[in-house]
């Protein structure tokens, strides 16, 4: 009886790669030719792993190969390579320079450009990147009293937004030089991926760690490629990538054993829940075995609390006004494709408009790189910001809730059974309106959890188990922070909306939906006392109800 699965022999893999190279295909293209939804089976085929017989045959047919010359049943003990002391006899400097030369084009392909949302063509990375600043103390881990927040908030940010707590900042590259093992945390759109790209590009061009081999891995792809194959390690996965370039496992093992790799693992938060434990385990095993290498992992704030041994956690800070100005000039030059003199003039007018009192809420939004790109796009056409801000806030809310993940091909785990996008908006509007009239814009986690519990009771008929409801409400709050970044933990157990203008907008939506609610009078009184009535309605008038 024919075997249900087949694997390629070493000679078969060599022939398959020759055919694959001649055709000039990508693994994604070959997967589509064979009728597969992902490239996982293609990756297994080229790494000599067993795959379904029919898929194996289809791949050989697409590559115009004789199945009998390609297929073979065999197993190898890859782990024996790692313990082979003979590998260390390779000259490390020669190996590093060889692999850097061979892998240079791959890093350029992965990190040399950025794809900007709502911009048709990719932009050369160095034409747009602005150096980030790093906070060496994670804001959400601080033990702080809530009563101190309003004073710091007003002192640090007169734009009615929530600023970083005052602390010493350093450049991103300085942090990488200082620490060999880094976990880089940041809110959505803070620039985590672009930071890793910057490090990879600098290393690739010999401007930073020129005697190291840069390796960039999207953890989402890693998780998808090894799904269903628990025996594949991160080392195996990297070896398979380099085999396509004619680099042997022995050479790569020499690099890792000597600690001469700069390994950049991007997007731990983008790994779906069913895969996360396995991926964390794979990373832990690799970092413990090859501990001499420089390793950087990026992840969103609030996603998970697992700590990799020996790693220093840092947080990406908000853009300063000088960074905003730098980015704007680069944006009008490289994205809007204006001549240098015009781009400089546009950036100057852009900053002048942002610094006007009536535009403080937009200045607050511009401290997040993802939103700054959107704001530049808005400004490009009219060289001003619209008086009615409703559409801007609507687009930004949509960006956080759906479009950013969709653009990156990310599917987040469901935060609660049947909890739709509409429910998220309604819940956020409910929280915004309830908390807006109160004396502080910062609220204890317990308070927000009670509001979430109330919403669940009103809309989902959950079981009458108080303890279970408290746990579910806390999980929903954490999921909103991790997946969308609209509510953020500003200190341990203390939350606020990521941008005050978005809280205003969501409050306005709640007013429109519940125009006859008795709580409306309380909210209006509060606005009058705070002398914000004019500002509030300038920003939020004409908000359409949620349907």
Question: Can you lay out the helices and strands and say which pair or pack?
Answer:
Blueprint: E1 5-6, H1 10-23, H2 27-34, H3 40-46, E2 51-52, H4 53-62, H5 67-70, H6 79-82, H7 92-111, E3 113-114, E4 123-124, E5 133-135, H8 149-156, E6 169-171, H9 172-178, E7 181-186, H10 192-204, E8 213-218, H11 219-225, H12 234-243, H13 249-258, E9 261-266, H14 273-289, E10 294-300, E11 312-316, H15 321-334, H16 340-354, H17 360-365, H18 369-382, H19 390-408, H20 421-435, E12 443-444, H21 445-460, H22 466-484, E13 487-491, E14 494-497, H23 500-513, H24 519-529, H25 533-540
Parallel strand pairs: 7-10, 7-11, 8-9, 9-10
Antiparallel strand pairs: 1-2, 3-4, 5-6, 5-11, 12-14, 13-14
Helix pairs in contact: 2-3, 2-4, 7-10, 7-13, 11-14, 15-16, 15-18, 20-21, 20-23, 21-22, 23-25
What does this structure look like?
- The structure is a single chain.
- With 547 residues, the protein is an alpha/beta fold.
- Helix content is 53%, strand content 10%.
- The chain has helices at 10-23, 27-34, 40-46, 53-62, 67-70, 79-82, 92-111, 149-156, 172-178, 192-204, 219-225, 234-243, 249-258, 273-289, 321-334, 340-354, 360-365, 369-382, 390-408, 421-435, 445-460, 466-484, 500-513, 519-529, 533-540, and strands spanning 5-6, 51-52, 113-114, 123-124, 133-135, 169-171, 181-186, 213-218, 261-266, 294-300, 312-316, 443-444, 487-491, 494-497.
- A seven-stranded mixed beta sheet has the order 6-5-11-7-10-9-8.
- Helix 14 links the parallel strand 9 and strand 10.
- Helix 7 (92-111) packs across helix 10 (192-204).
- The longest helix has 20 residues, at 92-111.
- The chain is globular, with a radius of gyration of 26 Å.
- The termini are far apart.
């Amino acid at each position: 009886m024919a075997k249900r699965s087949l694997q390629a022999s070493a000679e078969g893999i060599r022939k398959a790669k020759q055919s694959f190279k001649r055709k000039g295909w990508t693994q994604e293209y070959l997967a589509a030719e064979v009728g597969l939804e992902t490239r996982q089976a293609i990756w297994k085929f080229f790494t000599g792993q067993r795959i379904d017989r029919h898929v194996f045959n289809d791949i050989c047919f697409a590559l115009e190969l004789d199945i009998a010359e390609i297929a073979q049943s065999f197993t190898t003990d890859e782990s024996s390579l790692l313990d082979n002391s003979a590998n260390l006899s390779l000259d490390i400097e020669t190996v590093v320079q060889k692999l850097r030369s061979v892998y240079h084009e791959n890093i350029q392909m992965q990190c040399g450009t950025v794809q900007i949302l709502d911009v048709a063509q990719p932009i050369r990375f160095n034409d747009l990147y602005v150096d980030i600043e790093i906070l060496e103390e994670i804001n959400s881990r601080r033990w702080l009293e809530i009563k101190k927040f309003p004073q710091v908030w007003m002192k640090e940010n007169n734009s009615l937004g929530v600023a970083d707590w005052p602390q010493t900042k350093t450049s991103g590259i300085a942090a990488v030089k200082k620490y060999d093992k880094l976990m880089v945390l940041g809110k959505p759109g803070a620039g985590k991926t672009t930071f890793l790209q910057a490090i990879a590009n600098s290393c690739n061009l010999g401007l930073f760690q020129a005697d190291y081999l840069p390796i960039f891995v999207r953890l989402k792809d890693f998780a998808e490629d090894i799904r269903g194959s628990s025996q594949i390690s991160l080392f195996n996965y990297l070896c398979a990538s380099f085999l396509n370039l004619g680099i042997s496992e022995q050479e790569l093992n020499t690099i890792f054993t000597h600690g001469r790799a700069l390994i950049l693992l991007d997007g731990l938060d983008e790994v779906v829940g069913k895969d996360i434990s396995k991926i964390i385990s794979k990373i832990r095993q690799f970092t413990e075995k090859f501990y001499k290498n420089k390793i950087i992992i990026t992840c969103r704030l609030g996603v998970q609390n697992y700590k990799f041994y020996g790693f220093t956690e840092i947080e990406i800070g908000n853009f300063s006004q000088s960074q905003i100005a730098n980015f704007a000039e680069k944006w009008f030059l490289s994205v809007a494709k204006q001549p240098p003199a015009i781009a400089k003039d546009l950036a100057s007018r852009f900053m002048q408009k942002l610094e006007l009192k009536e535009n403080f809420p937009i200045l607050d939004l511009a401290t997040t790189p993802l939103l700054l790109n959107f704001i530049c796009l808005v400004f490009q056409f009219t060289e001003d910001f619209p008086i009615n801000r409703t559409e801007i806030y609507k687009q930004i809310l949509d960006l956080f809730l759906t479009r950013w993940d969709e653009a990156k091909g990310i599917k987040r785990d469901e935060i609660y059974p049947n909890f739709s996008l509409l429910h998220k908006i309604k819940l956020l509007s409910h929280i915004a309106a309830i908390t807006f009239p109160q004396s502080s814009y910062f609220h204890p986690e317990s308070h927000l959890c009670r509001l979430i519990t109330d919403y669940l009771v009103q809309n989902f008929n959950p079981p009458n188990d108080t303890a279970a409801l408290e746990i579910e409400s806390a999980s929903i709050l954490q999921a909103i922070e991790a997946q969308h970044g609209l509510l953020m933990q500003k200190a341990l157990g203390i939350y606020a909306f990521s941008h005050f203008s978005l809280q205003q907008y969501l409050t306005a939506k709640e007013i429109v939906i519940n125009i006859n609610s008795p709580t409306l009078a309380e909210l209006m009184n509060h606005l009058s006392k705070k002398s914000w009535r004019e500002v509030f309605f300038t920003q939020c008038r004409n908000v359409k109800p949620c349907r």
